[in-house]
Amino acid sequence: MRRRSLLIAVPAGLVTLAGCGDDKSDKAKSSSSQSPSAAASASAPPPAPKIVDGPLPAITAGTKFGEKPTVAKGTGDPSKDLAVKTVIAGGGKTVAENDYIQANYLGQVWDTAKVFDNSYDRKTPLVIQLAQGGIIDGWRYALVGKKAGSRVQMSVPPTWGYGTKGNTQAGIKGTDTLVFVVDIENTFNEKSSAQGKDVAQNDAALPKVGTNTDGKAPSIDVPKATAPTKLVANYVIEGDGDEVKADSSVLVQYKGVLWDTGKEFDSTYSRGQLTSFSLQQVVKGWAQGLTGKKVGSRVLIVIPPALGYADSPPSGSGIKKDSTLVFSVDILAKM
After folding, report:
1. Distance in angstroms (rounded) separating the CA atoms of residues 6 and 117
2. Residue 317 has what pLDDT?
3. CA 296 to CA 276: how far, in whole Å?
């Protein structure tokens, strides 16, 4: 598994940019996976910061978007406010509160220029939700309103970072102001959909899934036929992103219906909230069905009971024992 980011709360003992607690979905046994952490305090959140232009140390190398930057040591006293600068202005979608962003980043201490975390060396951008308690407040306030394709530099005082306790695992003291450079690659919300090429659905014995990409739930038409006894995992829309691995964590939109009735029993669209999870934490049908599929795709997964919930469906889910489950899954990002 990749090392987690320093922006979040570190539930797995890793340092990152996000806050405490894993994001769990109710009926697909999905739990949130990795993200950057900022240990969130149990006390009331601080007031919104005043955002100023500087001071900010110079970026001396790796000045292009997507390149690992080298950042000079801070000179003089850092601002007591949140200093934010758009170094490169992107032209993509605008980041909103509670969006998930996909970004590469580097973080270092103002006084020493000690780099305590960066995603560039891990070769995997961070995917994390800009939600209160899920990421340090400095990121949340600095990145909302920015556009995908932008490089943003910020200076985060302790109040909107790790607080007076700091982050001992990362070597961050409670008095340290932190400097970040963030390359925003993409942003996702409840309206996000797969993006790719439609794939023919010619098997009349299998469900047919809608190919709309407007953020609305796709239709799932289940045929009046005997359910397959083996796992089905077919592209509906084929994206061109990285392949999902057996130990990957993913950010998805999905809708699930019962083969016997076609009735929906779970859906991120209905909840208006994306979900993320590790493929090692979900039913075997999901894990096997998504492994090898490309990011950006919509996948039809038909899960026989043995690879689903068998005779132990979740209480209150509306799923009966030995049910065959049908899912449409949009793979938005690999985490």
Report:
1. 6
2. 87
3. 15
Pick from 136, 96, 116: which is nearest to 7 by CA? 136
Q: Are 217 and 191 in contact (CB under 8 A)?
A: no
Handedness of CA 116, 121, 122, 124 (dihedral sign): positive
Token pair listed for 43: 């006390």
Query: Percent of the chain scored above 90 by pLDDT?
Result: 82
Q: Report which residue type is found at 220.
A: I
Q: Which residues pair with 109 in a beta bridge?
A: 178
pTM, rounded to two decimals: 0.85
Four-residue CA torsion sign, 247, 253, 258, 264: positive
* Cα distances (angstroms) measured from residue 161 to each of 128, 137, 144, 174, 313: 16, 6, 16, 9, 41
Query: Which stretches does DSSP call E strand in the chain?
Result: 7-8, 17-18, 51-52, 59-61, 70-71, 82-88, 100-109, 115-118, 126-129, 151-156, 178-188, 197-198, 208-209, 220-221, 232-238, 249-258, 264-267, 275-278, 298-303, 325-334
Tokens of 17: 């940019």
Question: Looking at the chain, how many residues does it have?
Answer: 335
What pLDDT was estimated at residue 166?
94
pLDDT of residue 37: 53
- Nearest C-alpha neighbor of 229 from the set 317, 308, 329: 308
